[in-house]
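The authors assume throughout that readers already know how a fold can be written as discrete tokens. Each protein is reduced to its one-letter sequence and a matching series of backbone shape codes. I therefore recommend that a typical entry be quoted early in the introduction. For illustration, here is how one protein appears when written out as sequence plus structure tokens:
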Amino acid sequence: MGNNQLQFKYLDAGAKSSIVVIDSDLSTSNDQTLYLFHRQRNQIIEYRRDIVEAKLRELTAEEQKMAKELQQAYQQARAQFTPRGAAAQLIPESAPPAKPSPARDTMDDSDDSDDDIGLIDDDDLMDDEDEEDED
């Protein structure tokens, strides 16, 4: 990870003000939000872009002296951080093969038990469509 993707700013937000790190490689997958590493809270937090960008400013010369320490703290937080939506990416693309179901000894088509498992026959479907047209 190169330093060119990290920006060090100051979030001027009253009691919640802090030096922050913006990592351009860390995406929220939402154009309206961004992740900032908040030094006072020592964690990466998702913020609404339209609110937070107006409150960011460049670091003063004194604040810039903390850049190395800030980068190290960010690296530690980043190692522990899982972006929102990342858990969905861990789901395998294909499921393991289904186990074969035990064979049934008898097949009785005379039993009309489809209603017991919630199947909808065409007549029910047509009734639902007619009700939607009336709305």
User: Anything to note?
Assistant: The chain is about 30% helix and 20% strand. The CA atoms of residues 35 and 65 lie 23 Å apart. Strands lie at 6-11, 18-23, 33-38, 43-48, 56-58.
